[in-house]
Amino acid sequence: MSLNSVQRLDPRLLATLEAVVRHRSFNAAARELGYSAPAVSQQIAELERRAGLILIERRPVRATPGGMVLLDAEQRVRSALAAASVELDAMRAGTAGRIRLGAFASAAAGIVPQALAELHATYPDVQVSLSQVEPEAGYSRLKRGDMDLALSYDYDFIPMPPPRTLRRTLVARDPVVAVVPADHHLAHRDVIDLAGLASETWIAAPEAALRLELLAQMAKTPGFQARLEYDGDDFNTVLGFVAAGLCVAVMPRLALPPGSTQVVARPLADPELTRFIYTVRIDTRHAPRALLALERMLAAQALAALS
């Protein structure tokens, strides 16, 4: 049988073959399938023409070796379609399938793991892929359809509205804190004025801490000069510099690991700064059940992490 002949095999003709062999009768197969007996005979003849072999012995009706090969193929096709139908039903119900999740660095570490553990316990057939993305890149991927759900953020002093095609939901407020070494002369204070840090030693880490020029603008005072530079987005690296006494930093509280004894985090005063954390997805009236569940779980974990 040529490749072209195989490609021309019609699953409907295979189903007719299966019915004829199972009933051992063209007439009984025709009644089950809703065809006339001549139509069933024509379909079998067409299948034999495409296969280039006799597939059914007529008296008595039974499959030839070639017919058995196609019956095995028909069973595999039927099983695959049945499995696909179940999977599609589950996807429509939102209980299976794949969710492509995006999250910024501190959320990927501090919010996502527990939410995914809860999702897996509730929807064990849902697979999740996680990408670390910053808000702007996450919005672009959501719009392109390359991502299903994202954790995003902006700041009260730098609002960044999402595109109109996206639905963004505020889930938590993450206070921005001053981080100083544990033995720093300001570590004993309950709050720290931002302007009081202007003359400290700073690290320039635009991807892992607030930009120094923004801090100077908000404090309305000169200073905030960097003596160290870090090109990366790992908050722990910045905290390591702070713990070593090399600098101070300002960052969202979610970025701080629990139980650290080498650094001290204090709320900022004058001004108080806040990072807003959101879930974001395409703005549709309906969404898969598991996707909505994960959105709720992420929101709950964000609140728990910042309580």
Automatic annotation (TrEMBL):
Keyword hit for Hydrolase: no
Record's keyword terms, sorted: DNA-binding, Transcription, Transcription regulation
Domain HTH lysR-type: 9-64
Entries under SUPFAM superfamilies matching the protein: Periplasmic binding protein-like II, Winged helix' DNA-binding domain
Keyword Thylakoid: no
Matching Gene3D superfamilies: Periplasmic binding protein-like II, Winged helix-like DNA-binding domain superfamily/Winged helix DNA-binding domain
A GO term for molecular function: DNA-binding transcription factor activity
Entry GO CC: protein-DNA complex
CDD domains linked to this entry: PBP2_LTTR_like_6
Family: Belongs to the LysR transcriptional regulatory family.
Record protein name field: LysR family transcriptional regulator
Organism: Streptomyces kaniharaensis
